[in-house]
Amino acid sequence: MGDKRILLIGTYDTKDPEMRYIEECITAQGGKVLTMDVSVLGDPTTPTDISKHDVAAASGMTIEEVIAQGDENKAFRVMSRGAAAVVTKAYAEGRFDAMLATGGTMGTDLALDCAQTLPMGVPKYIVSTVSFSPLIPPHRLAPDVQMILWAGGLYGMNSVCRSSLSQAAGAVLGAARAVEAPGRDRPMIGMTSLGSSCLRYMKTLKPALEKRGFEVAVFHSTGMGGMAFEKLAGEGAFCCVMDFCMQEFANMLAGSLVSSGEDRLTNAGLSGIPQMVAPGALDLLDFAGWQEIPERFKDRPFHEHNRLIKSAVFNAEERRAAIAEMATRLKEAKGPVHFFLPTGGIEEWDREGQEAHDPEALTATVESARELWPAVAPTTVIDAHINDATFVEAVLKQFDAWVDEGIVVRSGSTTAFVGSAK
Question: pTM of the full predicted structure?
């Protein structure tokens, strides 16, 4: 329990007492630390394990050259690149088990880059004066990053500040000790879906695939879930993906904040992972519950899911554009792709009598897919709704064929697993 080492990242020139306090909190609980200074101008009271000179060098500059940038923003951009490179290398060398970074807006900007470099499952905490702030766009967040507000932490130590820092120290050390690394016994399938009232195929597919000897991870496609899915796909974590929910992809194209980022529908293909794809929930344009629906969408079919999220419905033209962009991205895949087209509907709320029912737009979706997809990948047309049993049966039939052909491997795993410091 006492051998876990925490990487501490901060500006030791201006926050030396705070960083040393965190170090004391961790070591008092039996943990170890690896200290990293990302300052530019000043120096810590005592040397850190990784100095600002090391960080600058990792970006290809000396600290004097960083200072010569003559601008705080430019200098910290250089230090961010160096810090991310140092974190990547240090983790690969097994020098730490978890990361804790501190900062205001500058330090948080750097910390976000560092967190993005670490694999899923490595505990990563950021104590920030702007935690949970709308200043931080979702795409900057590592999918499993944890943030704690640095209350009272702008300048100097105080009891409020100690409360935040001590919680962070305990949280990151506890996470490093408690984290359960992914198992290696079964290959993993990554699946996207949306709740269980909108898309239901996962309820049947997951147990059926588990009976076949596979592990199934289902990602909630409301932005952050898709980011985690793409992150793991990029790490080669899956033996196959069943990417059947395109809601956050269409949101990204429309500029909605309910998005998983610009790299959606790319990482599995770049990794050569076999992909099964369907246009589930491609019709939904999402807004945060607190947002006012823009005037141009107010005459659309509308579904208010809860106080956090509500949806308008894409029209025929917008759906055609989304189908076309799906095809464009998946043409670049290095592994096999199979497309499933349910002609009877693509999410539960588009059924007749439900809020999102728009038969003309659904027809446009189906027609566009029929025109585009056969030239991109093998296509199975299913004359049923995506939530009907027929859809699941078609998916399992194709999956079993891929297993028989050796495209999806039954034994072993391609999962990228979390390591640990020595």
Answer: 0.84
**Single-letter code of the amino acid located at 18:** E
Q: Which amino acid is at 335?
A: G
Question: 321-356: b or e for each residue (b if 16 or more CB lie within 10 Å)?
Answer: ebbebbbebbeebeebbbbbbbbbbbbbbbeeeeeb
Q: What CATH number is given for 5-178 in this structure?
A: 3.40.50.12020
Q: Which residue has the tokens 């306090």?
A: 21
Q: CB within 8 A of 27, min separation 6: which ones?
A: 33
Buried b (16+ CB within 10 A) or exposed e, 252-284: bbbebebbbbebbbbbbbebebbbbbbbbbbbb
Residue 331 has pLDDT above 90, yes or no: yes
- With beta carbons less than 8 A apart as the criterion, state whether 193 and 228 touch: no
Distances in Å between the Cα of 291 and the Cα atoms of 194, 272, 310 are 20, 39, 9
Give yes or no on whether 5-178 and 188-405 have one common fold. yes
Q: Are 106 and 88 in contact (CB under 8 A)?
A: no
pLDDT-derived band at 420, boundaries 50, 70, 90? very low
> CATH topology for 188-405?
Rossmann fold (3.40.50)
Residue 72: HSE in the Cβ half-sphere, 13 Å Cα cutoff: 5
CB 139 within 8 A of CB 227: yes
The pLDDT, as a whole number, for residue 112 is: 97
Using DSSP's 3-state secondary structure scheme, residue 101 falls into strand
Domain coordinates in residue numbering, the chain: 5-178, 188-405
Torsion sign (Cα): 19, 135, 91, 100: positive
| Secondary structure of residue 125 in the 3-state scheme | strand
Write the single-letter amino acid at 237.
A
Residue 289: is its pLDDT beyond 70? Answer: yes
Segment 40-50, tens digit of pLDDT: 999 999 999 99
Instruction: Report CA-CA distances (Å) from 227 to 67, 77, 130, 219.
Output: 35, 24, 21, 9
